[in-house]
Amino acid sequence: MKARVTVMLKNGVLDPQGEAVRHALGSLGFDGVEGVRQGKVIELDLAPGTTEDTVVQMCEKLLANTVIESYSVEMG
Amino acid sequence: MRAAVLVFPGSNCDRDLAVAFEKAGARVSMVWHKDTGLPEGVDIVAVPGGFSYGDYLRCGAIAANSPICGALKKHVERGGFALGICNGFQVLTETRLLPGALRRNANLKYICKLVGLRVETADSAFTAGYEQGQEITIPIAHHDGNYYADDETLRALNDQDRVAFRYVENPNGSVESIAGVLSENRRVLGMMPHPERMAEPSHGGTDGQAMFRALMDQLATA
């Protein structure tokens, strides 16, 4: 089974990389991009029976720094 | 004073840090990241700069979960001293021994240059050799030194006089130009600038020396 963890900087934490991407899109002529947030996706191959709760613990302990990052978990 | 310098795969300021401590008169042990304990009688644990574990996942995140960091946490919980410089500061925030986090520099560039720092408090074993308000010149060399803490944490840091250093000119976007912070018991310091690279005349300056000498004075055991 697989899990997909998405880690993003929390709202309110300035994302300089996202801002740089937004500027780059603007300079390529893509108007109307009002905001870009850049995060990361982590795919986990898990032994059958691994619970979402365990993946949440992985996020809390290692995969995200909850001081500045939020995360979401998709199982399946 | 006995100092332990932690060594992770990818550390690259560990020798410089050891030399700075030795020149101040400390006995220094290098401690490998897979060790689960610190040498007997260590007064201060120093977490050096570099790129522990290649900065994979997040700077300092993997190191913070290494076996030796379990021993580091116990050392700090017992009231032991710890100093984290650059990647070491990132490790100390990742272990939650210090508040806040270090983000990518606001200009997205790796910055390697001399910067002015203002000493915000002389009330710690690390900064007792400086005057409050003194300006010193220390190099920075980092890509992820943009300090962040939420408003509540910033209030606590300010109210408790726990900001050790601020940049005179903010190079990286850090909130309130913070360059280094102290723990609540004032025995843990994390800072992005490198005092160990400014610790003898051949470095081009000696403004970092006072930190190691002050630690020696404050932690000297009979």
From TrEMBL, chain A:
<dbReference type="InterPro" id="IPR003850">
    <property type="entry name" value="PurS"/>
</dbReference>
<comment type="subunit">
    <text>Part of the FGAM synthase complex composed of 1 PurL, 1 PurQ and 2 PurS subunits.</text>
</comment>
<dbReference type="InterPro" id="IPR036604">
    <property type="entry name" value="PurS-like_sf"/>
</dbReference>
<keyword id="KW-0436">Ligase</keyword>
<protein>
    <recommendedName>
        <fullName>Phosphoribosylformylglycinamidine synthase subunit PurS</fullName>
        <ecNumber>6.3.5.3</ecNumber>
    </recommendedName>
</protein>
<comment type="similarity">
    <text>Belongs to the PurS family.</text>
</comment>
<dbReference type="GO" id="GO:0004642">
    <property type="term" value="F:phosphoribosylformylglycinamidine synthase activity"/>
</dbReference>
<keyword id="KW-0067">ATP-binding</keyword>
<dbReference type="GO" id="GO:0005737">
    <property type="term" value="C:cytoplasm"/>
</dbReference>
<comment type="function">
    <text>Part of the phosphoribosylformylglycinamidine synthase complex involved in the purines biosynthetic pathway. Catalyzes the ATP-dependent conversion of formylglycinamide ribonucleotide (FGAR) and glutamine to yield formylglycinamidine ribonucleotide (FGAM) and glutamate. The FGAM synthase complex is composed of three subunits. PurQ produces an ammonia molecule by converting glutamine to glutamate. PurL transfers the ammonia molecule to FGAR to form FGAM in an ATP-dependent manner.</text>
</comment>
<dbReference type="Pfam" id="PF02700">
    <property type="entry name" value="PurS"/>
</dbReference>
<keyword id="KW-0963">Cytoplasm</keyword>
<keyword id="KW-0658">Purine biosynthesis</keyword>
<dbReference type="GO" id="GO:0005524">
    <property type="term" value="F:ATP binding"/>
</dbReference>
<dbReference type="GO" id="GO:0006189">
    <property type="term" value="P:'de novo' IMP biosynthetic process"/>
</dbReference>
<keyword id="KW-0547">Nucleotide-binding</keyword>
<comment type="pathway">
    <text>Purine metabolism; IMP biosynthesis via de novo pathway; 5-amino-1-(5-phospho-D-ribosyl)imidazole from N(2)-formyl-N(1)-(5-phospho-D-ribosyl)glycinamide: step 1/2.</text>
</comment>
From TrEMBL, chain B:
<keyword id="KW-0067">ATP-binding</keyword>
<dbReference type="InterPro" id="IPR029062">
    <property type="entry name" value="Class_I_gatase-like"/>
</dbReference>
<comment type="subunit">
    <text>Part of the FGAM synthase complex composed of 1 PurL, 1 PurQ and 2 PurS subunits.</text>
</comment>
<keyword id="KW-0378">Hydrolase</keyword>
<protein>
    <recommendedName>
        <fullName>Phosphoribosylformylglycinamidine synthase subunit PurQ</fullName>
        <ecNumber>6.3.5.3</ecNumber>
        <ecNumber>3.5.1.2</ecNumber>
    </recommendedName>
</protein>
<dbReference type="GO" id="GO:0004359">
    <property type="term" value="F:glutaminase activity"/>
</dbReference>
<keyword id="KW-0658">Purine biosynthesis</keyword>
<keyword id="KW-0315">Glutamine amidotransferase</keyword>
<dbReference type="GO" id="GO:0004642">
    <property type="term" value="F:phosphoribosylformylglycinamidine synthase activity"/>
</dbReference>
<keyword id="KW-0436">Ligase</keyword>
<comment type="pathway">
    <text>Purine metabolism; IMP biosynthesis via de novo pathway; 5-amino-1-(5-phospho-D-ribosyl)imidazole from N(2)-formyl-N(1)-(5-phospho-D-ribosyl)glycinamide: step 1/2.</text>
</comment>
<dbReference type="GO" id="GO:0006189">
    <property type="term" value="P:'de novo' IMP biosynthetic process"/>
</dbReference>
<keyword id="KW-0963">Cytoplasm</keyword>
<dbReference type="GO" id="GO:0005737">
    <property type="term" value="C:cytoplasm"/>
</dbReference>
<feature type="active site" description="Nucleophile">
    <location>
        <position position="86"/>
    </location>
</feature>
<feature type="active site">
    <location>
        <position position="196"/>
    </location>
</feature>
<keyword id="KW-0547">Nucleotide-binding</keyword>
<feature type="active site">
    <location>
        <position position="194"/>
    </location>
</feature>
<dbReference type="GO" id="GO:0005524">
    <property type="term" value="F:ATP binding"/>
</dbReference>
<dbReference type="InterPro" id="IPR010075">
    <property type="entry name" value="PRibForGlyAmidine_synth_PurQ"/>
</dbReference>
<dbReference type="Pfam" id="PF13507">
    <property type="entry name" value="GATase_5"/>
</dbReference>
<comment type="function">
    <text>Part of the phosphoribosylformylglycinamidine synthase complex involved in the purines biosynthetic pathway. Catalyzes the ATP-dependent conversion of formylglycinamide ribonucleotide (FGAR) and glutamine to yield formylglycinamidine ribonucleotide (FGAM) and glutamate. The FGAM synthase complex is composed of three subunits. PurQ produces an ammonia molecule by converting glutamine to glutamate. PurL transfers the ammonia molecule to FGAR to form FGAM in an ATP-dependent manner.</text>
</comment>
